[in-house]
Amino acid sequence: SVLNHKQCESYCSDLLSRIALNDNKAGMEGLDRDKINKIILETSKGSKFYENELKKEQQVNQRIEKMMEQKARITKEQLKQAQAEVDKLTCELERSRELGRVIVHVDMDAFYAAVEMRDCPELKDKPMAVGSMSMLSTSNYHARRFGVRAAMPGFIAKKLCPNLVIVPTNFDKYRAVSAQVREIFSEYDPHFMPMSLDEAYLDITEHLEERKHWPETMRTYYICDAKTGNDADRSAAESERDELSPVLFEDSPSSSPSLSGADRKAEVFGTSAEEAVREMRFRIEQKTSLTASAGIAPNMMLAKVCSDKNKPNGEYRIPPERQVVMEFMKDLPVRKVSGVGKVTEKMLAALGIVNCDQLGQQIALLSLLFSGTSWHNFLHISLGLGSTCIERDSERKSMSTERTFVEMSDAEEQYSLCRDLCQDLAQDLQREGLKGKTVTLKLKNVKFEVKTRAFTLQYAVCTEEEIFAAAKDLLKVEIDSVSPQPLKLRLMGVRVSGFISAEDKKPLQRSIMGFLQKGGSDSGSFTQCAGSVLKAEEDSDGASFLKPQATEMKQSFFQRAHLSNTNSGTDTTSYVNKPAVLKPSFKISTQVLPFLTCPVCNTEMKDVNLTAFNNHIDECLKGSAVDNEPTHLDAPKEQEELNRKPPASSSESRTLKSSSHDPSCNEEKPSTSISVPLVETDEDGDFKTPFFSHRTKTNGKRSVLSKKKMPVCESSSKASPTTHNLEAITEMSSDSNGSSLTCPVCSQPQSTDDLALFNRHVDMCLNQDVLLEFRESHPPVGHSDEPALKSVRGQQGSSPLPPSKKPKVLSTKHTIDKFFKGNAGQKV
DNA sequence: GGGGGAAGGACCA
DNA sequence: TTCCTGGTCCTTCCCCC
């Protein structure tokens, strides 16, 4: 309402470049673009999608503005220097120009649509498309005359062509046809490079060499009987052209133009590249009743452009001569080149560059405005250069799955969907035997804004649990970041990337059980145990909080565990007696261990199930926190009960966390872990205990245990939650008259006549180096000078972690990490 | 300053 | 009423060593 007419026009023209018809496709020449664009615009206008496209367009315009400002600042001298550099590079590129390879790009014509038309001949003469009302995958050439094309929503296509028939996709069918086509490709190049179900690059150089010596019989193909598929026994009548080209494109050339008589039965193909490719297309057509187009050139870039030249059912060849290549490139619009999309096209157009000839003339300028990668690419294009080596067996870099749905605002539903996606992805990964380190969550909100949030683990993962453990934390941060408003999503995706190489796939890490078992043989890799044995520490609401550090922590723990175990030959059972100190944030599995001592009530348990042990500790902590009294159950009785108990659900398990009973406690504040030891330092921050002499950067405040009860959540600069927590534990461990206390580290009863003495004992029990580092890097929660976590992307709207979530388990990471580092090979 | 992770975006079929 | 899915690569920002 505030825009004037001119601005409106400008906005519309801006938008047109983004959502207007892209007629850069075969079969779409000479359309009434204005009319089509008007319909597209009217149908789209006002939608969230439209608004988002407008926003993106404005961003591109800003980029262009910046670029133009930059251009205005370029001096003649700079340009001259740049030109010299470009000339030098051009000479080098010319010297290394390779014209000796014969590269072919084969592309099936309107593939999905053609398959559907083949299988349902009544569609042949109708405008049709494959896809849904939301999105079309492809359209036939009848539909293209109406402006209907791939990547267009079906409802817009229906506006353009009300009679359009939309057929749902059937990928199993397309895959089967694709396999047939690929069989033929492999006969011309066994190492061909498939790009998708319907296209591939081939290097037929070797084939042509051999082909030269082939007798005619090896280059003769009989016309297939379309009814029986038998290509050895055919009558002349069955070889009518209708059967040769049964499906599509009445105007297109046949792949067998020489066949034009009643006695046509066989086709003899020559030895040239064109003939070999025509033969290949002929065979594809005979085998599948579908047509393909092809480009033949000295490199992949040119071959790709050529395959589009005579679509459908045609081929085009650029001979291996520099002059011809340059001539071909001269008038070629930059947008025809693979890799130049609408944004690049628009930016180049702003500089007056539309075709490749203009591109070549402006490389010096481009070298000052674009990145090195970009302008090098432009230079290659302008010279008609491209890859001459088809990358064989290139490895997959990532795998993902995503789903679009109607608006979803319910967090529980979102977590559930997230798990489903992780499950699907895990199955795909396992099917291909892949494991990756980076888990990425992709979210698209109802405004069509896309966000990706990634976390890189230290070890590769592939199971549903492992992937979900990371993905759900990423999701939680996003949900929390808009809380109390709901996160309104329309798409969610999960990706795993950073695949490990074959040699890395060997299990390097022992599982926690392997670690805990006496002389235990490794039961598997870390990744196997990570999902099933370990669980991220869980928040009171049952969902784990986001903590990339936590995952790192888990891994550090295992790494250390492994190192200490394998490097030193430590008796692993020696750790078993003190599991609570080592891994307070972990849920422990159902493995039965011979001997465990509860660090809270000091009960010894024999042959106890670890989950049950965990539950016991939870109960002890809970009971103590609520009652402020130690929980002392009759050990044998309790053990019996524990062994009967089923494993706790992940949402219930909060191992070794003390919970707050202070009504003033902000629920955002994390409950704290007992993992961080107390440290006693002198005024300079040096440790008082004799065997630690590091100087700390902290203020040297002395942490002491006091009998005075302090609320766990009351975090201040005076007392860290760690102090409170240990205090709580200590209180829990004291007997009723307070004359003795159980050390939470060594579990030995200690006299409490002198609390300072008890404090010192605890200090001695702990590796204080741990706390030193912890305190240096992680000030207590709520500390006034706590640094705010910075957003990774700064201005780009990424969500910083909620401050309250940060230090929860960082302590554990350092504790455990350092603990093992400092105690490798020692008994704890 | 370089390496590497995270996030966003361009581009492709 | 309704604008996908799955992939690669590049750029930018930021942190850490």
Automatic annotation (TrEMBL):
Signal peptide: none annotated. GO terms for molecular function: damaged DNA binding; DNA-directed DNA polymerase activity; zinc ion binding. It is an enzyme of class 2 (transferase). Residues 649-658 have a biased composition (Low complexity). Residues 694-710 have a biased composition (Basic residues). Keywords: Coiled coil, DNA damage, DNA repair, DNA replication, DNA synthesis, DNA-binding, DNA-directed DNA polymerase, Magnesium, Metal-binding, Mutator protein, Nucleotidyltransferase, Nucleus, Repeat, Schiff base, Transferase, Zinc, Zinc-finger. It is found in: Nucleus. It comes from the Eukaryota. It catalyses: DNA(n) + a 2'-deoxyribonucleoside 5'-triphosphate = DNA(n+1) + diphosphate. Pfam families: IMS (PF00817), IMS_C (PF11799), IMS_HHH (PF11798). Its EC number is 2.7.7.7. Residues 47-99 form a coiled coil. InterPro entries: DNA/RNA_pol_sf (IPR043502), DNA_pol_Y-fam_lit_finger_sf (IPR036775), DNA_pol_Y-fam_little_finger (IPR017961), DNA_polymerase-Y (IPR050116), DNApol_IV (IPR022880), PolY_HhH_motif (IPR024728), Rad18_UBZ4 (IPR006642), Rev_trsase/Diguanyl_cyclase (IPR043128). Residues 232-244, 629-644, 777-788 have a biased composition (Basic and acidic residues). One of its GO terms (cellular component) is nucleus. GO terms for biological process: DNA repair; DNA replication; error-prone translesion synthesis. Its cofactor is Mg(2+); Mn(2+). Residues 714-723 have a biased composition (Polar residues). Residues 740-770 form the UBZ4-type domain. Residues 103-341 form the UmuC domain. Residues 232-267, 628-723, 777-813 are annotated as: Disordered. Belongs to the DNA polymerase type-Y family. DNA polymerase specifically involved in DNA repair. Plays an important role in translesion synthesis, where the normal high-fidelity DNA polymerases cannot proceed and DNA synthesis stalls. Depending on the context, it inserts the correct base, but causes frequent base transitions, transversions and frameshifts. Lacks 3'-5' proofreading exonuclease activity. Forms a Schiff base with 5'-deoxyribose phosphate at abasic sites, but does not have lyase activity. This is DNA polymerase kappa. The gene is polk.
